[in-house]
């Protein structure tokens, strides 16, 4: 079990998005290219993950899912949306459906 979390990756994305121009950073190049470029990458990776879900191997799906999560975090960053806002929305839905207490009891 890895201790690496989406929060960890979001922090790295935020740091790299602000990297100096002298540093080579793929994240920075995407953010500099703007929301449309980030959206295109996110869309492409989403389609690739969907294809891997339908007919790829588990190894391919793991790689495509990682690409989707990374590019989603870059998209959130370029539109200045914090991951915590997304998690709060997910938590709100969980509470609404009555699953929150059950999940915390099972933890
Ligand atoms: N998860 C990733 C990640 N996934 C893919 N890539 C880079 O994405 C680039 C393009 O890969 P693609 O397969 O999308 O190829 P492509 O479609 O031809 O590329 P495009 O020109 O269309 O973007 C490669 O250079 C990869 O290195 C990534 N680059 C960075 N990260 C994460 O971001 C962190 C910071 O990276 P830097 O910003 O480069 O410091 C890293 O530590 C990783 O955690």
TrEMBL record:
Belongs to the PRA-PH family. Its EC number is 3.6.1.31. It comes from Methylopila capsulata. One of its GO terms (biological process) is L-histidine biosynthetic process. It catalyses: 1-(5-phospho-beta-D-ribosyl)-ATP + H2O = 1-(5-phospho-beta-D-ribosyl)-5'-AMP + diphosphate + H(+). The gene is hisE. GO terms for molecular function: ATP binding; phosphoribosyl-ATP diphosphatase activity. Keywords: Amino-acid biosynthesis, ATP-binding, Histidine biosynthesis, Hydrolase, Nucleotide-binding. It is an enzyme of class 3 (hydrolase). It comes from the Bacteria. This is phosphoribosyl-ATP diphosphatase. Pathway: Amino-acid biosynthesis; L-histidine biosynthesis; L-histidine from 5-phospho-alpha-D-ribose 1-diphosphate: step 2/9.
């Amino acid at each position: 079990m890895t201790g690496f979390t989406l929060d960890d990756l979001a922090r790295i994305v935020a740091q790299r998005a602000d990297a100096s121009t002298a540093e080579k950073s793929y994240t920075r190049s995407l953010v500099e290219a703007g929301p449309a470029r980030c959206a295109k990458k996110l869309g492409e990776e989403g389609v690739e993950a969907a294809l891997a879900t339908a007919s790829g191997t588990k190894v391919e799906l793991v790689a495509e899912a990682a690409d989707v999560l990374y590019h989603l975090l870059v998209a959130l960053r370029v539109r200045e949306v914090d991951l915590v806002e997304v998690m709060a929305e997910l938590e709100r839905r969980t509470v609404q459906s009555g699953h929150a207490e059950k999940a915390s009891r099972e933890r």
